[in-house]
């Protein structure tokens, strides 16, 4: 069993080491047309980068440690 796990971990690590190269469209395909407001067509890297609207940043403070919740006066039992 241990040998299988080591082999699986090795194959997973090997698969993660894939070559990195510039993205290109599939043979016979082309990039989508450029947006109307852009002066030049977008590169493949620009096309896969999410916009600010697609991936917004958190604006509220995350809890750093647990705190007691305030009493919620609207937390009523069901009727």
From TrEMBL:
Residues 30-42 have a biased composition (Pro residues). Residues 21-79 are annotated as: Disordered. Residues 57-79 have a biased composition (Basic and acidic residues). It comes from the Bacteria. This is Uncharacterized protein.
